[in-house]
Give the backbone structure.
Amino acid sequence: MSEWISVKDRLPEKMPYRWEMVIVHKENGVIMEAMYNTRVGEFMKDFNSLSCKVTHWQPLPPPPKD
């Protein structure tokens, strides 16, 4: 799995109309899968803004190989 990236250091690359699936660590200690809306620069879950600030993120790992 990838290393955690601080949102202070870097965010997923901005591309128009693109959703990037990532794993986030929120300030309340919760780790979850989320989407990063690269168009507006916001982490979201189910197309809603997250209720708690994201402190770190990382890309999803690659899928398993058959």
